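For consistency, the fold was encoded as tokens, which produced the following:
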Amino acid sequence: MRPALELAAEAAAGADLAVVKAIPRSPDRLGVELRRPDGGMLAGQWFRHSGEALTAWDQTRRSAPTSGVRLVSGGLLLQPGGADRKLRGLHLMLATPGAVLVAHRPEKRAVLRQGAHRATTYVKVVRPSRLAATAAAARLTVPGVATPQVLAVDEALGTVTCAELPGRTLFDLLADPTLTDGWIEKVGYAVGGAVRRLHQAAVTTDLPSHDAAAELAVARRWAALAAEHHLLGDRADAVHRLLAEAEEELRVGTGPVVLLHRDLHDKQLLVDGLEVGMLDFDLAAFGDPALDLANLLTHLDLRARQQRCSTERAQRCAAAVRQGYGPVPEDWRRRLAGYELATRARLACVYAFRPAQAEVAAQLVRAPAR
């Protein structure tokens, strides 16, 4: 049986599209982000079985009859204009003048931007079953760290509307050649301080617990998905070795239990001058602070490997983040190393579903521990 991603890429090429990213749903189904010839993005899904594809096409077309939903040869469902049978509010919100689709993960969630420059808002659209948790996460606040203000929650549409935060993402700043490495160090120091304040925040919101075992389970799940889709090749042993090493390092004990972002990376951090804001607390949980720091530091390493910035810039930023975070107990060393190993393995598997980035991300499983 041919791998799903290979077949999806073949179907996309036949429609003059390219697969940028795939989200595995099963060995026979993928969510996909596609690139048009003009560089524009398009959401879709790929189905191995024609019956499932036809059902999805019919239901999606009915949910947004004017969007131009298409089912092309090879089982590829194209979902322009926010067409989505599970996110019924998306198509309606996009009909609002000035609304722009920012991201769309079919049948899971989407984000759109609305309004003029000085009154811009962002709207997250989710399935009805996820709305309460999404709204609660969006309302989390951290003293000394900017977070988007929740303006409205619409149960009928499944939407959470938030005000725009000022600033640029750390992801963008790293790639800006007009900024000096010295300035990036200052930014990194400010980011480290913001992460420390996140971990010091007192929160009464009911959030799940996420310990080392849970994080290893997430990484192993991605490794299993990548293997199931035949994407690891000769890297499988290296991925499993990293996971075994991560487990060994994380056996040393548990750290303090604090508020975690749980998906902390450079695209989630907005910097305005040296004021730092954080986005997207959907995965927020209580757990070991070393996990957030490891995730961020590993992403900085990845950006250098992606040639988003120089290795020196990434390393200086990472060192500044550590310095800005401040002193940590000695027992952090092995826990931080363990979470970094788990993150490297997970990212190598996540990026295996992104054809243009898979080989670069694979370097993470070959890289020596830092």
In short: Residues 168-366 form a domain with the Aminoglycoside 3'-phosphotransferase; Chain: A, domain 2 fold (CATH 3.90.1200.10). Residues 208 and 326 are 26 Å apart (CA to CA).
